[in-house]
């Protein structure tokens, strides 16, 4: 990246994790611009992504129950954003873990659930008017660090150690990318990034500003761990604070996971070439595709809910069974004891509601024979899987 128009190489030295001395260079990105030059094709991608986001915003604004988008989207995002960082968990296991406040037995599921928690926190803080800052992200990173599979350095604060990006355990010389050193230059870069994402940029549509903001965050790599997950969460926070979206309804990580190599490659090539167009086009393709996918999901869930409601009405079934159906979008994996606790009903009443929903094909028992028995709303989970 020597001679990059978007930053400079700065010398670094010290001891790595293996206590071996190194003397090398790190990349220090320049401040983000208020205007950039893009190819005509890339600008068309920006327009298409902005239009798709507008359709999603319209779907959100007309939705009587925002959970039809938010709950499925967040569950899928949690699984895929974690998978991009090497933490793999089954969606069904994550959904099942949501029924209990206890820590999941599987470390991977616990780490994914931690992402769900920080996302909910971030959405609430932003809705309450808290700006997106490094301090906010530090608070979130501390929560992620508590559930990390491996011990963390500098949890809950900007890193005080040098990090490298590359194969696990690689040396600074083997790294694909070396972020800025943990000194006043990193802090200055973060201060500039924070001020940039918190300021209006009339020449930059929100989707384009999100693309630039994400690159800069990942280039600075402010934390010892969790930068990818926090960076992708910040994309959504930028769209919410800019007013491009009113609800956190989009999932970008499933698409990025399918195109992992291209995702990582585009981010690296910006620093190498200074050409924003390939990355912005790629990012806009992800945003446009996932925005339209979210619209399709809400339409299919709405149609499914209307159909189930009609079947309940035809059978004159009401009370707890109707309440369970309304909540299946948010809680598509349930047990009889969970229904008892959530709705304050007896064991026979909970079992009766579940049995009737199984008979209708709304619920099905999981293949694993467990006690208590676990049931899934297959239509909801199928919709989530399509995001």
**Averaging pLDDT over every residue, what do you get?**
93
User: What low-confidence regions span 5 or more consecutive residues with pLDDT below 50?
Assistant: none
Tell me the major beta sheet.
3 strands, antiparallel
Per DSSP, the total helix count is 15
**Inertia-based shape:** globular
Short description:
This protein has helices at residues 40-61, 67-83, 91-97, 107-127, 134-146, 184-197, 206-220, 227-242, 253-258, 260-273, 277-314, 320-327, 336-343, 347-360, 378-385; strands at residues 7-15, 21-29, 333-335, 364-365, 374-376. It is mainly alpha-helical and 387 residues long.
List strands and helices in order, with pairings.
Layout: E1 7-15, E2 21-29, H1 40-61, H2 67-83, H3 91-97, H4 107-127, H5 134-146, H6 184-197, H7 206-220, H8 227-242, H9 253-258, H10 260-273, H11 277-314, H12 320-327, E3 333-335, H13 336-343, H14 347-360, E4 364-365, E5 374-376, H15 378-385
Antiparallel strand pairs: 1-2, 3-5, 4-5
